[in-house]
Amino acid sequence: MELHFNRQIELNIPTDKAWEILWNNYENVGEWATIIPESAPRFADGELVGRTCSSTYGDVKEIITSYDEENMTYSYEADGLPSIFKSGKNIWSLKPNGPNRSKVSMELKMEMARITGLLMGWMIRKKMTSDLDGLMEDLKHFAETGEPHPKKKKSLMKWEKHKLKKVA
Question: How many CB atoms are closer than 10 A to CB 6?
């Protein structure tokens, strides 16, 4: 079962500032995205090749598949996903949308494992829809204020407690 999501949001910041957040700080998505409590860069031969994200779905490893700085677009694929998914691909792009305004677009395609898709696909689609809407809201808040959304701050406290329980 394939899940396909498209999201767009307008930011009240110049496109180069949005690019700074989304691409130049790609590996730091955990600083502002509520559904990603932690993220870390992945390097090969000293070059950034992807990131690892802890998420509400489990740990996800991503590998960058393309980026085009001039057209402000990049894509990545998951090369390590929780077992409920078979594959995942995401494309982000930015466009100017007036003076000091940006339009951010995201296209996500996820393929679920067959049995999981049949049994829980509707439920996972609903959760991912809510999570992606929240992700765009988080991006807007962070881009326009320079601070993580209050719900991100609250979720980090829960994440820290979760990590402490795992260690204990």
Answer: 11
